[in-house]
Amino acid sequence: MPEALGTALATPGLPWLLLAIGVAGIVRGFTGFGTALIFVPVAGIFLAPQVVVGVMMLTGLVSSAALLPRAWGQADRREVGLLALAAVLTVPLGLWLMTRLDPVLIRWCVAVIAAITLAALISGWRFSGRVNRPQLAGIGAAAGGIGGLTGLTGPAVILFYLAGQSVAQRVRANTILFLAALDVVIVANLLVRGTVTAGLVTLALVLAVPYLITSLIGQALFDPRHERLYRWAAYAVIGLAVLSGLPLWT
């Protein structure tokens, strides 16, 4: 354990990783989303794709433990369950692609997916109509595949929920619950593949400390009356993370 801790503390760019995960925790606490959109572009500068995905999922499990109790009672669990079931089927494909594609190409995928997500949110795009069950399953499947490839577990579902007409409280609860379920699915697949090492777990625990603290701070700050302010603050942080993580700079 001491050796693993020493290796984790010697991780290249660790101060930036700690800053990114801390800010991401605040954003997720008061919006229910945004962790991967903030952390993954920055982490990709310093870490290999499989390490980024592993750390992102393991760290997410820790914060979910703090946010789930409130979200469980507020979420539409049947809807989230369908999303999660579809994601289970596509996570292995995403993880397989992650091991086959060039790391720089994966970083570009992260940048493009995050930028498209951010642009859609900023534009105020709204879905009109009702998504049926097959379409809902398709959204979950897309989230699982993208999450396994890049660590960006939320964009497909974030766009679906934020584009709808649900109240902020329900949106926040649904995304928290789904992202927690998807974290479990991806970690289980990584365990089967044997890619979860002591060093990976230790690094995730080091990052989980500020993430857990700032997630609780963000949750305490959440007030539905200030939904618009929270969203625009989240958009600004996500935009900065995407720009800093572009492969053009490193």
TrEMBL record:
Family: Belongs to the 4-toluene sulfonate uptake permease (TSUP) (TC 2.A.102) family.
Membrane topology (UniProt): Multi-pass membrane protein
Keyword Ribonucleoprotein: no
A Pfam family annotated for this UniProt entry: TauE
Organism, as annotated: Roseovarius tolerans
GO cellular component, one term: plasma membrane
Subcellular localization: Cell membrane
Keywords from the UniProt entry: Cell membrane, Membrane, Transmembrane, Transmembrane helix, Transport
Primary location recorded for the protein, binned into one broad class: membrane
The name this protein goes by in its record: Probable membrane transporter protein
Residue stretches spanning the membrane: 16-40, 47-68, 80-98, 105-127, 139-163, 175-192, 198-222, 229-249
The keyword Transmembrane is annotated on this UniProt entry: yes
